[in-house]
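User: Show me an example of a complex going from sequences to structure tokens.

Assistant: Sure. Here are the input components:
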Amino acid sequence: MKRFQRLLAAVLTVCFANATMIQTAQAGMISTEQVARTGAEQGTGHERLTAALARADVQTAMQQQGLDTAVAAERIAALTDEEASALADHIDSAPAGGIIGAILLVFFVLLVTDILGLTKVYPFTRSVR
Amino acid sequence: MTRTAAPASRSRRAFATAAGGLLAAAALGGCAVQTAGLLADPPADLAPAVELADTPFFPDDSHFCGPAALATALGAAGFATTPHALVDKVFLPGRAGSLQLEMLAGARRAGAVATLIPGTLEALMRETAAGHAVVVLQNLGLSWAPSWHYAVVVGYTLDEREFVLRSGPMRRQQLSFRTFEHTWNRGGRWAFVALPPGELPATATEAEATRALVAFERSATPAAAATAYRGGLARWPASVTLRIGLGNALYAGDDLAGAEAEFRSAAEAHDAAAAWNNLARVLLEQGRSAEARRAAERALAHAGPLEAQVRATLAEIDAHAPR
């Protein structure tokens, strides 16, 4: 099952990557993303390969984070190459807005800092001015 | 189970963290730099108070502040949606939250252009004054005990020194400039505005607007992408990237004549190899091989890293119309 999922992930990644690549590659047009990119590597096969690998990495990581294969593939398709590479590097560590973490442990500290107006964890605090 | 041992070590640890926290708090005490500057010398043309009261509100008390904030901003920009509909687009279960890049991508998938704005309190104010709700990432906790949270700035009052936000369960959170600045600083002063294609944030830089528009093209229909690029060109008419982007969007929408005009304009104004190459492709598709060859040769003159693609264009021209 696990192996099947990984295979499916790989196939979908390639499909989605191609959907955007073929658009430009078939017609031989240089894409705006390519124009916008700066640096010596611009437009080289090496960069394309790196981007494709980044997308595959993000696909795997997203599935490990609980997304199903198709949902992850759609989300990756909406990312630029630059964004996909950034996400591949930081998906486990980048800020994920939504988690109210570590609050119990540091309740007291945060209460004090809330009152000092440095943080705003608790709705009931009113900071000193 | 060693249940009895646990409380002792936990309380010791709690004490240590508390002491550390107080030290950190003391160290952080005086660093609301922007607030001080802004209050000492507010820009003369800044409206004293703004509130976008019509901005929708989606109360959230769980991990879905990402979808909620995004639905709020999209609703304000005219894209009616719900947090529920956005969960699959921006929420990452394993992280119990939403990542910044996916918030931008989620906005684009809903049809909006999502542009990062400068990390200044003044930029937040100027956007709300321009009628734009701003999604911000806050770290409501501390750097070493982060509590990442998305909220939407919908206004401010200079007199009261407060921002007004749609935040979590609060429809109208009033947060002092100073506290907001602390929580925003700890989140990297990250903020974006989502707008319909053709409109751009008042404070966006050319670099960020370009990044946003190019990314938008990926998810957008050709017509929407063209409208978005036109909006960018209205503000930065000399941008070669936006001009080529408009050409590519028109080409994707099968408007060959329109695409030709934009590529020609970019090619002649900037002598850009990408523009010459794409112009050659459009000309070739219209059966104008001689003109196409001239354009492709101009592209080859300084193709740099694009050389392989330009040579492929030339080869195709040769295949259609041998020299």
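The lines above are the inputs; the final block is the predicted structure for all two components together. Residues 2-27 of chain A form the longest helix (26 residues).
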